[in-house]
Amino acid sequence: MLIHIKGAKGRKDSYTMLSETVLEIIREYWKEYKPNKCLFSGQDKEKPITTRTVEKIFSNICEAVKILKPLSVHSLRHSFATHLLEGGTDLRYI
Length: 94
Description:
It contains 3 helices and 2 strands. Strand 1 and strand 2 (14-17) form a beta hairpin. The model has no long low-confidence stretch (mean pLDDT 90). The chain has helices spanning 20-33, 51-64, 73-86; strands at 2-5, 14-17. The chain has a domain at 2-49.
């Protein structure tokens, strides 16, 4: 139940947890879009979605649900880490 992220921060590979709920959503997405090379491709189906596109999607969602606090995609990473820490996960693991 891990996601392997190739070329993450510092162009190093990393792993993050995958919940059952997210796995089911990804399975549904896979069935509908049948991606080839990348799970989330950009306009060019052979290349992954760009960071800027993800940021724009996130910004549009925040606007649509009327979140006024300035947030970024990176805010989600910090929130996730905070929830893990509050849930008792060892800081060295986070």
